[in-house]
Every structure is written in structure tokens, then in C-alpha cells.
């Protein structure tokens, strides 16, 4: 079963991983998630994990020593994929989710403040049993890596065999749908009642003509894809 080790000074963020699909996947032994408090590896009576930046500048930088200890504690002799969340990282997308879903062990380093001393990236990149991935979930500013890790885990874990009840919904969904080899977004969905606040469900969806419905859905999905770009 795939193992995910999450390291953070705010382990409470990850209580959401007890819920819904991910909570069920954990309870049924499809994935193993361990949350680790970086402060357990902090030094001194004040348990500090940060310090002022060399070269000056605003804010604080996370010290490498607690990170080294926390990462070494969860490392195995096998391939360790170390994911370091940073706005400077490679943009996370569905292809990366698929790649990460194929790994048996991922370590997520969730920094705060101005981020983690860069020697953590440098050191583990130089270790043959580690593969370091600097990842960003998108071009907007977050306060740390925790929420980004939640986003990534949700995208990754639903791809693990057995996690989705209905594997058809995996093949059918957005970003795997294609028209002439191009990825298109989802078509719009409707359910009962057939009329709501003066708005009707498109007639064709009530027709029972499966060929026409498929063509209509593709046409609407292509429209949405074009409006988005
Ligand atoms: C982070 C982050 C991802 C994304 C990830 C990790 C650690 C103003 N400063 C905010 C600038 C440097 C980073 C500071 C906060 N921070 C942000 C992210 C992310 N993954 N897509 N946006 N932001 C850290 C510290």
C-alpha cells in the first residue's frame, strides 16, 4: 500500500484526511498516511524551527536541521520521493498526479514563513536514494505548503486502484476526455427536477437518444473548453 509521510509545524491541517473518500481509503487499508510534527525535531527550550535570512530581507526562514532530522526519520532504503512545496516549483497538474500515484512512498515537506533553507533541497537531491520534486499547485501566494499538500493528495489518492467505487468515472472525467487528441473539460450536468426556477433541463438529455446525447455533451464540453482558454 502506498505510504505518504507529511511533515509540518501545523499537523492539524491534515485532519481533513480523516474524511470522505480519503478517510475511507485509509480505513480500508488502501493508503497509509502519517502526519509528523516538525517541532518534535526542533532544538532548544523554545523549540524554534526558524531563523533570520542570510543576506537580509523580511521574514524568517525554516532552519535545515529540524527538516533533516524529520526527513531522515521517515526515509526508507527504497526510493524516497521527497516533495517540497514551494511557489518556485514545477506546476502540479493531472499528469504529475498520475506520476505520483505510481510511487509507493512520498514525503511531503510543508514549509511556512519564507520557506525552507535551500540546502535541504540541495542535500537530498545529492542523495541517490532520494528523488526531490519541488512543486507548486498554482500561481497564487499561499502561507505554506499544507493546503497545497491536501490538494495534491486529493488528486493523487483518487487515482489509486480501489479508491474510487466506480472506475468508469475515472476514465470519463475532465482532463482525460479528448476530442481529436486534445484534452477537454467536463460537460455540464443536470438532475431532477426537470424545471427549476424557470430553467429547464436541455430537451435532448430527456430524449433517450444516446448518440445525440453524446454529441450534445461533447459540443457543450468543447464550448466550455474554448471559453476557459
Ligand atoms: C509557501 C505556495 C505551493 C503555492 C508553498 C510553500 C512555504 C510571501 N511568501 C509566502 C513568499 C514565499 C512563500 C511564502 C509562504 N510559503 C507558499 C507555498 C504554493 N505549493 N502554489 N503558492 N504558495 C510555502 C512558505
Describe the model.
The chain is elongated, with a radius of gyration of 22 Å. It has seven helices and eleven strands. The chain has helices spanning 20-27, 64-74, 94-101, 119-125, 146-157, 168-172, 210-228, and strands at 3-8, 32-37, 50-51, 61-62, 80-91, 105-109, 130-136, 178-179, 182-183, 195-196, 199-200. 31% of the residues lie in helices and 21% in strands. With 229 residues, the chain is α/β, with parallel strands linked by helices. The mean pLDDT is 95. β1, α1 (20-27) and β2 (32-37) form a beta-alpha-beta unit. The site of ligand JE8 has 18 residues, from β5.
Topology record:
Blueprint: E1 3-8, H1 20-27, E2 32-37, E3 50-51, E4 61-62, H2 64-74, E5 80-91, H3 94-101, E6 105-109, H4 119-125, E7 130-136, H5 146-157, H6 168-172, E8 178-179, E9 182-183, E10 195-196, E11 199-200, H7 210-228
Parallel strand pairs: 1-2, 1-6, 5-6, 5-7
Antiparallel strand pairs: 3-4, 8-9, 10-11
Helix pairs in contact: 3-5
The structure holds ligand JE8.
The site of ligand JE8 has 18 residues, from strand 5.
Strand composition percent = 15-25%
Overall shape: elongated
**N-to-C order of helices and strands:** EHEEEHEHEHEHHEEEEH
Question: Count of DSSP helices?
Answer: 7
Number of strands: 11
Q: What is the overall pLDDT average? A: 95
Distance between the termini: 38 Å
Strand order of the largest sheet: 2-1-6-5-7
Which compounds are bound in this model?
ligand JE8
Q: Helix fraction?
A: 25-40%
Q: Major β-sheet, in short? A: 5 strands, parallel
Tell me the radius of gyration. Answer: 22 Å
Helix and strand content put the structural class at: alpha/beta
List low-confidence stretches: none
Amino acid at each position: 500500500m502506498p505510504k505518504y509521510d507529511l511533515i509540518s509545524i501545523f499537523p492539524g491541517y491534515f485532519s481533513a484526511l480523516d474524511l470522505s473518500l480519503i478517510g475511507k481509503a485509509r480505513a480500508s487499508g488502501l493508503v497509509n498516511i502519517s502526519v509528523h510534527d516538525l517541532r518534535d525535531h526542533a532544538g532548544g527550550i523554545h523549540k524554534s524551527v526558524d531563523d533570520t535570512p542570510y543576506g537580509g530581507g523580511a521574514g524568517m526562514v525554516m532552519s535545515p536541521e529540524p527538516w533533516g532530522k524529520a526527513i531522515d526519520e521517515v526515509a526508507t532504503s527504497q526510493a524516497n520521493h521527497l516533495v517540497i512545496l514551494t511557489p518556485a516549483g514545477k506546476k502540479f497538474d493531472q499528469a504529475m498526479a498520475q506520476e505520483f500515484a505510481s510511487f509507493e512512498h512520498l514525503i511531503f515537506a510543508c514549509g511556512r514563513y519564507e520557506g525552507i533553507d535551500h540546502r535541504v533541497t540541495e542535500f537530498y537531491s545529492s542523495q541517490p536514494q532520494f528523488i526531490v520534486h519541488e512543486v507548486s499547485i498554482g500561481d497564487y501566494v499561499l502561507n505554506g505548503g499544507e493546503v497545497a499538500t491536501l490538494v495534491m493528495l486529493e488528486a493523487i489518492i483518487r487515482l489509486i486502484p480501489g479508491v474510487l467505487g466506480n472506475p468508469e468515472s475515472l476514465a470519463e472525467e475532465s482532463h482525460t476526455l479528448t476530442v481529436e487528441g486534445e484534452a477537454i473539460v467536463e460537460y455540464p450536468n443536470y438532475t431532477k427536477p426537470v424545471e427549476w426556477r424557470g430553467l429547464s433541463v436541455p430537451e435532448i438529455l430527456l430524449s433517450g437518444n444516446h448518440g445525440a446525447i453524446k454529441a450534445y455533451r461533447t459540443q457543450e464540453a468543447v464550448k466550455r473548453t474554448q471559453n476557459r482558454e
